[in-house]
Amino acid sequence: MFSHVFVGVSDFERALAFYTPLMACLGLPPRFCDHGRPWAGWQTPGSANGRPLFLIGRPHDGQAHLPGNGQMPAFLAADRALVDAAHALALRLGGRCEGPPGLRPDYHPHYYGAYFRDTEGNKLGVACHTAQ
Hints:
Layout: E1 4-8, H1 12-25, E2 30-34, E3 39-43, E4 53-57, E5 74-76, H2 80-92, E6 96-103, E7 112-117, E8 123-128
Parallel strand pairs: 1-4, 5-8
Antiparallel strand pairs: 2-3, 3-4, 6-7, 7-8
Helix pairs in contact: 1-2
């Protein structure tokens, strides 16, 4: 469905220090990192063309990054333990909790998710959709 998701950041090095271990926890390998631009991307393992990508970087227009209200990329987790681990790691890396791990049956009976903001204020989610 998606080619890529780009999340703007102002402090690239701080954001990279947040996302590098988080992406490793989620099993998403790095595709590239260009400190000169600056931007970095991680890819979906096992896909034929390495897509979709998750990207971080400074906004292309050179303006300051501002977190959106309503935008929220959510990463797919294979199990509930990974949701728990990713949320805990995000908080240890300087993220802010926006909803602790747990079932959210108002979405569907097996939806287990967690929400947090990165070091730049961007809201992210991690979700598992399978029964325990």
